Amino acid sequence: MRKVRAGLIGAGFVGPLHVEAVRRLGYVDMVAVATSSPETARKKASALSIDRACADYRELLVDDSIEVVHVCTPNYLHYPVVMEALERGKHVICDKPLAIDSPDAREMRDRAGQLRRVNAVTFNYRFNPMVQQARAMIARGEIGRPRFVHGFYLQDWLLHETDFSWRLDPEQAGASSAAGDIGSHWIDTAQFLTGMKISRVLASLHTSVPIRKKPAASREAFQSVSGDQHKEEFLVTSDDLGSVLVEFEGGATGVFAVGQVCPGHKNDLQIEINGASGSIKWIQERPDELWTGWRDRANTLLVREPSLLDESVRRYANLPGGHNEGWADAFKNLMSNVYRFISEGRDPVDDADNIDFPTFEDGYRACSIIDAIIRSNQDRSIWTKVEY
Fold this sequence. Notes:
Layout: E1 4-9, H1 15-23, E2 28-34, H2 38-47, E3 52-54, H3 57-61, E4 68-71, H4 78-87, E5 91-94, H5 102-115, E6 119-121, H6 129-139, E7 146-154, E8 163-164, H7 170-173, H8 178-194, E9 198-206, E10 211-215, E11 223-224, E12 231-235, E13 241-248, E14 253-259, E15 268-275, E16 279-283, E17 289-293, E18 300-303, H9 327-343, H10 360-378, E19 384-385
Parallel strand pairs: 1-2, 1-4, 2-3, 4-5, 5-6, 7-14
Antiparallel strand pairs: 7-15, 8-11, 9-13, 9-19, 10-12, 13-14, 15-16, 16-17, 17-18
Helix pairs in contact: 1-9, 4-5, 5-10, 6-8, 8-10
């Protein structure tokens, strides 16, 4: 692979994980980082061993030697930063959700296509080997036609009133917190596994902690306010808990729950598909296992072993059996697919059929579903069509 030069815009929680993932590829140089201030940029550049610190993302974008930009800012900045990066001729990898609403996401998708820039969204759970294995098994009909898709994504990092994040501020994150932030991951994983799009939703969203303690000038994704910190009361209007009934094109139905206030659940994404002849289930916190269920024979638990996986899936299993692979490995697999496409100089329009990573199209679809979930909840939980 030829060398590719990249830049990072936004270096909070997820930004350093982007850097770690691309460095594992061996042919990507992360050469610059841009944050919200000169001091923060210098600190982040030093901590990440990146040579160049930029106090303004535009300073990074005018560097013609940088081919790829990773956008890891708060959600409300995704649209302006991505659009300017595309105009500057950059390929773009954007954190999810793609935008704070589907109209912005649609514009981002359309402009990337017009300019023929490679575009990707970090729906990384697709790239766990056992998720790839489940998709392959479903696609060849091993469990029959999917009938029911269900699961949840539960966390506890917003359990207390002293827990705060910019993700709770609609101006920065969009109207939904739990559904938009972690629900978008569950939505993408469900559609990826089944090969079916969600067409209608019925949602019930809730705010369990309506008043929170907000630290002064907080920019952190995860922050808990201690007793001696200056803080103010913050009225929360976005959801931290919810459940959604879904219908898929093709007739399958489903339901999922999201929660950021569920004690004991750290990053608990689970998804199960019940088909006409069998069932299949994956649990993110036990990523090397894939459960299958049957009526007339024993249920099975496939533990990741490359030789037992489909041939098309084995490249995602980077370690021998018994050597655990998890979140960071799936994230690296995503970056590998994106950067291979870029390094080989492939065109995202002419070679669209061979793209093996989530694009702005996938990001737009997820935003459209989240928008429908919000509308359904606002309309007193009625069935709402997803407008793609």
